[in-house]
Amino acid sequence: MLKAIAALLLLVLSLGLHGCTTGVSGLKSYVDSLDGYEFLYPNGWVPVQVTNGPDIVFRDLVERTENVSVVFSEVPGGKTLQELGTPGEVGYQLQKNAIAPPDSGRKAELVNAEARESGDKTYYLLEYNVKLPNQERHNLAAVAVSRGKLFTFNASTTEKRWNKMRNVLEQVVKSFSVY
User: Fold this and answer.
1) Which of 100, 134, 154, 160 is the most buried (most CB within 10 A)?
2) Cα–Cα dist 131/100, whole Å
3) Which residues are registered as beta bridge partners of 38?
4) Chain centroid, CA 100 distance in Å
């Protein structure tokens, strides 16, 4: 009887420890079926009310500047993502118009840009180093076109926490999908 209890206790402890590993554990799902997108976000992050900006924002309860957001806009002429440009071209336009627009006090550098296929959709995965007057940040973005809209999913953290958050944020950005 004691052996059975000990084995059960070890099983429960090992499952509990497994939940602390990197992977899908520790992530929650967000689905917006009305606008047609979904993504995973870290457990412990909460939605934030915003006006005249992103459709949705989640941020960390403790590290309040860590966040994810979704923005979408109309695509002129019903173009596809590929018709808008290569990953580098779209990444540069996003950098210039949204991440570090003129007179924003921010400077951004596109570090990486690549395309990924998932189902019948193409996604551009973009990585930026962003310098603000008082801090440096690291942004990851996924961009996709669906139903005549350009969707931009952005994940951001301070450069100081980038090494700790990198794997989680990469997984979160790759989880973004539109339909």
Assistant:
1) 154
2) 9
3) 31, 177
4) 18
User: What per-residue confidence (pLDDT) applies to 25?
Assistant: 75
Instruction: Return the SS3 of 9.
Output: helix
Structure tokens at 149: 């809209």
Q: Collect the ranges in the chain with pLDDT lower than 70.
A: 1-24
CB of 65 within 8 A of CB of 98?
Answer: no
| Residue with tokens 């402890």, as numbered in its chain | 13
Cβ atoms of 90 and 81 closer than 8 Å: yes
How many CA atoms, within 13 angstroms, populate the side-chain half-sphere of residue 42?
A: 24
Is 131 buried (19+), middle (13-18) or exposed (0-12) by CB count in 10 A?
Answer: middle
The 10s digit of each residue's pLDDT in 57-67 is: 999 999 999 99
List phi, psi (to 5°) of 33: -70, -25
Answer yes or no: are the C-beta atoms of 159 and 136 closer than 8 Å.
Answer: yes
What whole-number distance in Å separates Cα of residue 140 and Cα of residue 152?
A: 10
**Which letter does DSSP use for residue 76 in this model?**
G
Q: For residues 55 and 35, is the Cβ–Cβ distance under 8 A? A: yes
List the 37-42 sheet strands across, edge first.
Answer: 27-32, 37-42, 177-178
Give me the pLDDT at residue 32, please. Answer: 98
The H helix count followed by the E strand count for the chain is 4, 10
